[in-house]
Design brief:
By secondary structure, the protein is α/β, with parallel strands linked by helices. It contains 7 helices and 14 strands. The protein starts with a strand and ends in a 5-residue tail after the last strand. The protein binds zinc ion.
Length: 283
């Protein structure tokens, strides 16, 4: 059984990763064109054909004054074989004693469908009626306003935003953007045109939630290893370099919405090569 929820503390903040689906993926997709042996070794796998655990999840952050979500995961859908906690984000949230009305705001790393799913509930109503949804302006324009975006799921993404736009619940921003005293959106485009990661500071602790700049921790080590999904590889490479430098400088804990619950690590750099040290949650 995969872990489907986990909670830890960063300064004054309680952070919970909430799974909306724990499953597996073929590493070929996440490390496109990378030498098979090199990839298998870096991932610590025995065989080239081994699958790796993969999650669709959201993070709940509870501060003394507000509660927010990082992404809204995959959303309501039919049960999927080989996927635990499928479409159970709201159940995971209620297990934390939090109801959708309690969410003050949502920040979106980007608008791929598996990060906006629960913007609407199973009845296609707004799930978080009191929440402002923050999205970078270039990301929002790409999906909502730009006719040249021919992504096959564009209309489904737009449908997840239409009621929020009509209800004035969307706020866009440009570049790096401080949302509140704890949270800064770091502009890291390349996976999509306006992708951002979330940098969270409280006390003397720091957390970076890396979104799809790193589908897997090894993307932070091998910053030129790309998933098939990256929209612009040179930009995605530059974004990974930018966020890795920030994570090293701030000694941040790094984690990701697609990483198994709770995968937490520290990144370090020596002579231009990067290393991860994973944090044992059972200590
Ligand atoms: Zn994703």
């Amino acid at each position: 059984m995969a872990k489907v929820t986990g909670t830890f503390q960063i300064g004054d903040l309680q952070i919970s990763q909430l799974s909306d689906g724990a499953t597996f993926r073929d590493p070929k997709i996440l490390f496109d064109g990378v030498d098979e042996l090199e990839r298998t070794k870096a991932l610590g796998l025995e065989n080239i054909s081994d699958l790796i655990p993969f999650n669709f999840s959201s993070f709940l952050v509870e501060s003394p004054t507000s509660k927010w979500l990082v992404d809204t995961a995959y959303g309501h859908r039919d049960p999927e074989p080989d996927t635990e906690s499928c479409a159970e984000l709201l159940l995971r949230l209620s297990e934390k004693g939090v109801e959708p009305n309690d969410i003050d705001f949502v920040v979106h790393s980007h608008l791929h469908y598996d990060h906006v799913g629960w913007n609407l509930n199973k009845d296609d109503e707004i799930t978080f009626p009191n929440a402002t949804h923050f999205v970078s302006e270039s990301e929002f324009d790409w999906w909502i306003n730009y006719a040249g975006n021919d992504h096959p799921l564009k209309e489904k993404v737009q449908a997840k935003f239409k009621p929020l736009i009509d209800n004035n619940q969307v706020q866009t921003f440009v570049g790096d953007y401080k949302v509140n005293e704890y949270l800064t959106m770091i502009y890291a485009p390349g996976h999509t045109p306006g992708h951002c990661v979330q940098l969270i500071d409280s006390g003397n602790e720091s957390l970076m939630i890396v979104g799809d700049a790193a589908h897997h921790p090894q993307h932070l080590v091998h910053q030129n290893w790309h998933p098939i999904f990256d929209w612009d590889r040179p930009q995605a490479f530059a974004a990974r370099k930018k966020i890795a430098a920030i994570a090293v400088e701030k000694n941040s804990i790094v984690t990701g919405v697609h990483w198994p619950v709770l995968t937490l690590a520290k990144l370090s750099e020596k002579n231009g090569s990067f290393q991860l040290e994973f944090i044992d949650q059972n200590k």
